[in-house]
Amino acid sequence: MNGAATYDLGPWYGGLRLPAEKAQSTAQPIREVPVPERLVLPLAQHSGDPAQPVVDVGDRVLKGQLVAAADGILSAPVHASSSGTVAAFQSWPVSRRFGENAPCLVIECDGKDEAVDLAAAAVDYESMQPDALLRRILEGGIVGLGGAVFPTAQKLMQARSMTLDTLIVNGVECEPCISCDDMLMRELPEEVLGGARILLHALGIDKCLVVLESDKPQALHAMADALSALGDERIVLKQVPSIYPSGGEDQVVQLVRRTEVPSGGLPTDVGCLVHNVGTVAAVWRWICRGEPLISRITTVTGDGVLHPMNVRARLGTTIADVIEFTGGYAERASHLIVGGPMTGKSVTTDRVPVVKATNCILVLSRPVPVGDEKPCIRCGECAEVCPVVLQPQELYWYTLADNPQRLRELGLRDCIECGCCDLVCPSHIPLVSYFRRSKARILELAAEKERAERARRRFESRSQRLEIEQRKRREDLAQQKLSAIQAGPEDIRAMVDRARSKKSDE
Amino acid sequence: MLAAVLTATLIMSCIALAAGLLLGFASRRLPGTTESLVDRVNDLLPQTQCAQCGYAGCRPYAVAIANEGAPINLCPPGGAATVERLAELLHREPAPLVEPAAAPPGSVAVIDESACIGCTWCREACPVDAIVGAHHYLHTIIARECTGCALCVPRCPVDCIRMSA
Amino acid sequence: MEFERRESPFGTPPTDVGSTMRQVLYALVPAALAYVWYFGSGFILNLFFASLFCVAGEAFMRRVRGKDVEYALLDFSALVTAALLTFSLPPLTPWWVTATAALFAVVVAKHLYGGIGYNVFNPAMAGYVVALVAFPAYMAFWPAPRIGDLDYHYLTFYETAQYTLTGTLPDYLTVDAITRATPLDALKTGFENMQTFREIHNNPLMGDFGGRGWEWIGNFVAIGGGWLLLRKVIRWQIPAGVLAGVLLPSGILYVLGSGLHASPGFHLFSGGTILCAFFIATDPVTAATSPRGRLVYGFCIGILIYAIRRWGSYADGVAFAVLLMNMAVPAIDHLTRPRIIGHSKHEKDKA
Question: Interface partners of A (3+ CB pairs, < 8 Å)?
């Protein structure tokens, strides 16, 4: 009943079978990075508006204390990852901006790692109303840990306004090198399952699919054992084949729910909600243990580090500190990627801190030079591997031709930027970069069009207003003329007297 | 021999002429889309409503282009890009702009509030009602709605409006 | 520690254009060896001149167009054009016929259309067609295959070189003594003379399927093509389409046509059918790109090959079939575009 099933999956298109490169980092248990001397907390670790600080320089803060509050409808709070003193608000390099600076809150840690009263913060979620539970989740700073860092509470709130039937917990982790979700499921399956139950209660549904890739047998066993110990019939494990990018949100829905997410839509449009296993476990820690999101599991791997492994690091620990803990760089380290080898961000410095989105720290050696981009030879390999069945070669040609309308018609906005087409191109055309630029251009043109539309509407209402005024004036004038013609000699004399008396008043 | 060549040439020319006439008729008369030509031309214009083209707004200019064959290079805010897009839509030759734009694209008008006398002359000039202010009260420009047409600038009697990028 | 930036994805691309083209050249080696075995050293001389002029033309055009010359030679596409031309041209060809074909293929059909990736027409076929139409006599100059039991003088290397370089044969030989009809030529003249296929096929020059010698070359081309399929250099849709397009009408007419049509096997192993299916029609730049589109493209090429052979005035229709379908590729791509995930079937893009 709770066994994993590979059959009855939906159709799959394209994708690539990439070498997993996860063995090196999964050979040992998760290790805990000790609290560093300094924690750097960016205020914008999530999609939406940055959090606003609620502490001042010089304040002493405890682990788990709120240091920046959510600001606006789409935002999330930030909590202190350890105890210490707020040292400064300053610009610091962040991975979100590839190593450029962003506003951060710096805490000098005192080493005591004293926490707020966590037990008091834990709640009995089963007795809570769903709305209250969602507000509580928001207060924990929980965001999507799969990479999109969308505030979880808001995602749940949006979902509650739709008709849902399935919660999908995404433990696929299809991208090579990344293994943090794998290790989480191996070592802490109860947290994942506990979080799933909390979300089932919050959403008011009773069906949950936990999805894993077929190349994670240990995780599968751990989850299956924990599930049978738990005995919750609502949760079912499912396996998907290990093809990249089977773990994308829309792709998982397509495979396990056998429905396509409509273009421009969300999984909630087809009745399901997808959350990453890490997010779900973080929800459990916050609701049942009172610990807000202050740490996460990160994979440290690549041929540029001496000892690949998975670590749990406090948010705000710089990558330099994490790598030092794991044993340091290899001689040939030359690129630092935050994220995986297909979709990660190449950052310029290791001073960037670990944030909520940091699922993997990948250090690579210098790549083999492949030369410049060559002309497209229309081989069609890119179209063969696109999981969304787009025609990347056509999108490329129309990008060169700067034809945004055609790009829209050919479905550019459905591109998930997985990088499959880019990787297989024999002419080494950086397709993902081209598509990102085109998407930005389309947005720019849409904004321009919207402005023009507003101007046109204002012009038309102004023209109407002027016309009404003119007509009214003509009517008044006609009315006056009419009354003047109809006026008798006494009225005229009265008018003349009135004018004379007015004149004499002045 | 010569007769054969001449006959062949004549027949081919007649076919070509007939085909050309047919295609020309089809492209001009037969409906290509449900959207009227005026709407499609209007969609390409920047909606600045500045009347620099000589027509009282973008839609009148669109009507003139579509129905009266007005020149397509009269719109400075649209720039060369609009001229090219109009040329492509209407199968006409693009031409350089008759006049350069009064202000660089993306600029908005800004009123120097210390100098404003509240005369409302600029407010009456703005084709999209982006200036607010009552008689004898301070005027200001709603930057979000300003299209950069610069029609208000020459109207101010104390010269307190400038265009800023 | 500071780092340099790179663009994602951060993997090593599995292949590049040069290696793809090289695979095609390797796959042609068995067929080339068979060709030389059966038809002598003319092939090698042709290959030399074709390669020389293709590469020279490519380098010259890239220099003239202001692009880097070195890459032009590294991507091996000029050599592939040269190889395919050599397979198409008769093995005994004066060097200037080969040169004209090669230069037209590379300079006009490829670079004047924009260079690799931008050309509409298959360069090798365009070059061949120019030679065919401009020098029809030289293009009919096919020697007999080396099958051992003919009363025939096989040219030595020296004599072949002499003809290729100067266009003159040794005194004791005439053109008629050297040339023999190709199987397809024999088929056409035979049908014109109201012979049945069986009668034509009884000719000592005919083997089990096609002409003797020719069918062995066809086998080796197929081996090369199969290797390309295994290595995923080409995909199955175009070869399958071409073969189906040739076999289907020829099969139907052979069965129903009371002996007045050649067998499917004959068509398959004669002329350039197999070469076209695996090497010529699969040129990625000029072929359709969607999987269904490729099937349609290949199938139509096959039908046209058969149609031109059966009802046209040229013996082999491969080159013309390919060029005609090249023109249709944009339409095919447009009509066979697959549905995007998340879009409904009715959302037709408005072009």
Answer: B, C
**pLDDT digit string (tens) for C105-119?**
999 999 999 888 899
Peptide bond into C9 cis (omega under 30): yes
Contact, C8 vs A343, CB < 8 A?
yes
Q: At what angle do helices A431-486 and B58-68 cross, to 10 degrees?
A: 100
**Residue B120 burial (CB count, 10 A):** 16
On chain C, the residues whose CB falls within 8 A of the CB of A379 are 20, 284
Which residues of chain C make contact with A262, given a CB cutoff of 8 A? Answer: 342-343
Instruction: Name the region of A415 (left: φ>0; alpha: ψ -120 to 50; beta: rest).
Output: beta
User: Are the beta carbons of A478 and A486 closer than 8 angstroms?
Assistant: no
**CB contact residues (below 8 A), chain B span 107-146, against chain A:** 127-130, 145
Q: Which residues in chain B come in under a pLDDT of 50?
A: none
**Facing residue for C2 by CB, picked from A339, A349, A376:** A349
* pLDDT beyond 60 at C348: no
The strand ranges marked E within A120-255 are 166-171, 208-213, 235-240
Cβ atoms of C97 and C131 within 8 Å: the answer is yes
Residue A298's beta-bridge partner residues?
A311
Which chains share 3+ C-beta pairs under 8 angstroms with C? A
Q: Say how far residue C70 (Cα) sits from the centre of its chain.
A: 26
Q: What is the mean pLDDT of residues A335-357?
A: 94
| Residues whose CB falls within 8 Å of the CB of residue A140, separated by 6 or more in sequence, listed in order | A77, A282, A283, A286, A287, A292, A293
Q: Does any CB of chain C come closer than 8 Å to the CB of residue A433?
A: yes
Exposed/middle/buried for C24, CB within 10 Å: 0-12, 13-18, 19+?
buried
Nearest residue in A to B51, CA atom: A459
Residue type, B107: S
Of A201-210, A365-374, B42-51, C172-181, which range is least confident? C172-181
- Residue A413, C-beta contacts closer than 8 angstroms, at least 6 positions apart: A263, A264, A439, A442
Task: Give the C window 55-94 contacts with A, CB below 8 Å.
Answer: 71, 75
Residue A427: phi and psi, rounded to 5, are -90, 5
Question: In the numeric block, which tokens belong to residue A236?
Answer: 């079912």
Picking from A296, A356, A355, A350, the residue whose alpha carbon sits closest to that of residue A323 is A350
Give the separation between CA A300 and CA A311, rounded to whole angstroms: 7
Instruction: Show residues of chain C in contact with A342, CB under 8 Å.
Output: 8-11
With bands split at pLDDT 50, 70 and 90, how would you rate the model's confidence at A2? very low
Phi and psi at residue C17, to the nearest 5°: -60, -45
Tell me, yes or no, if A328 comes closer than 8 A to chain C by beta carbon.
Answer: no
Give the Cβ contact number of residue A80 at 10 Å.
Answer: 30
Q: List phi, psi (to 5°) of C67.
A: -105, 165
pTM for this predicted structure: 0.83
Q: Under a CB-based contact definition with an 8 Å cutoff, are residues A368 and A327 in contact?
A: no
In angstroms, what separates the C-alpha of A21 from chain C's closest C-alpha? 12
- Rounded distance between C-alpha atoms, residue C206 and residue A304, angstroms: 65
Task: With H, G, I as helix, E, B as strand and everything else as coil, classify residue A67.
Answer: strand
Chain C contact for A391 (CB, 8 A cutoff): yes
**Rounded Cα gap, residues B83 and B76, in angstroms:** 9
Nearest to A356 by CA among A317, A412, A402, A387: A317
